[in-house]
Write a structure and sequence with these properties.
disordered N terminus, mainly alpha, single chain
Length: about 280
C-alpha cells in the first residue's frame, strides 16, 4: 500500500492593510483640536453668563461679541492688522538674525571644544536673565525704535536655535563618521555633507520654537518701545487701559494665530527639506 503524497496547502495570502483615506486622515488630524476648541468655547460661554455678573462681563466678553466687535468692526480690525504688520516685521527680522547667529555659534561649538567651553555658559546665562529686566537697558543704549524691538526678539529666540543645532550636529551616527574617515574626508566636507544634513530635523525644531518666542519678544518690545509705527503689543496695552475687552481679545487671538502660522510654516519647510529621508516616530 503506497501512501499518496499530498501537496501542502497553500497559505492564504495575507491581506495588505488598507491605508486610511484622505477624509479619514483629515478627520483624525483635525477632529481632536476642533473638539477641544468647542469645549473651550462652551466653558467660555458658561463662565461669561453663569459666573460673572452682568456688570462684570467686560472682563470676559462672550465669543460672539469678540467676533462682532473685534473682527466685524472694520476700523478696529484694520487697526489690529496694521499693528500685526509692524510686529511681524520686527519678529521676522529678529528671527532671521537669531537663526544666523545661532547656527554659526552652534557650528563653531561643534568644531572646537574651547569655543563651546567659552561661549555656551554665557548663552545659558543670557537665557536665564528675565527679558523684562534688560529691556530698559536696551532702550537706553539703542533708543526706542525698530532695532530695539529687534534686539529683544534676538535675545529671546537665540538660545533654542543654538541648543537644538548643536544637539543635531553632535547626534550624527558614529558609523557614518567612520565611513567619512575611511574616505579621508576633511572637516569641512564632513560638516557640509554629513553633520549638517543629519542635524536638519533638530535645526527645524529649534526654528519652530524660536518662531513663537520671536513673536513674544516683538510684542514685549511693543509694550516698552513706542517710537515708530505702533505694533500689536502697543494696541493690546491701549485696549487694556481703555477697558475695550472685545478688541483686546481679538488682538490677542490675531497675534497667537500669527505665531501658529510661523510654527506651521517651519513645520512644512521641515517636511519638504527632510521628509524624504526622515520620518519621526508617531504614537497611534
Amino acid at each position: 500500500m503506497t501512501a499518496t503524497a499530498r501537496a501542502p496547502l497553500a497559505a492564504p495570502a495575507a491581506e495588505s492593510p488598507r491605508r486610511p483615506g484622505r477624509l479619514h486622515r483629515t478627520a483624525r488630524g483635525a477632529g481632536p483640536p476642533l473638539v477641544v476648541l468647542g469645549a473651550v468655547v462652551g466653558v467660555w460661554y458658561a463662565v461669561t453668563y453663569l459666573a460673572l455678573a452682568p456688570r462684570r462681563r467686560f472682563l470676559l466678553p462672550p465669543p460672539h461679541e469678540v467676533v462682532t466687535d473685534g473682527f466685524g468692526d472694520w476700523t478696529t480690525f484694520h487697526e489690529t492688522l496694521r499693528g500685526l504688520g509692524a510686529t511681524a516685521k520686527v519678529a521676522l527680522v529678529g528671527l532671521a538674525i537669531a537663526a544666523a547667529l545661532g547656527m554659526v555659534f552652534a557650528v563653531l561649538m561643534s568644531q572646537a571644544g574651547w569655543v563651546e567651553r567659552s561661549f555656551y555658559p554665557w548663552a545659558v546665562a543670557l537665557q536665564t536673565i528675565p527679558i523684562l529686566a534688560i529691556v530698559p537697558l536696551i532702550g537706553f543704549w539703542l533708543g526706542y525704535g525698530f532695532w530695539s524691538r529687534t534686539v529683544v526678539c534676538v535675545l529671546v529666540a537665540l538660545f533654542p536655535i543654538i541648543t537644538n543645532t548643536l544637539f543635531g550636529l553632535r547626534s550624527t551616527d558614529a558609523e557614518q563618521h567612520d565611513l567619512f574617515t575611511l574616505r579621508q574626508a576633511g572637516r569641512w566636507a564632513r560638516l557640509v555633507h554629513l553633520e549638517f544634513p543629519s542635524a536638519l530635523p533638530a535645526v527645524f525644531t529649534g526654528l519652530r520654537i524660536s518662531a513663537g518666542l520671536s513673536v513674544i519678544g516683538a510684542i514685549v518690545g511693543d509694550f516698552f518701545f513706542r517710537q515708530g509705527q505702533p505694533g500689536i503689543g502697543s494696541l493690546i496695552d491701549d485696549y487694556t487701559q481703555r477697558l475695550q475687552s472685545a478688541p483686546l481679545f481679538a488682538a490677542i487671538m490675531v497675534s497667537s494665530l500669527f505665531g501658529l502660522a510661523l510654527f506651521w510654516l517651519f513645520g512644512l519647510a521641515a517636511r519638504i527639506a527632510v521628509g524624504a529621508w526622515y520620518t519621526p516616530r508617531r504614537r497611534s
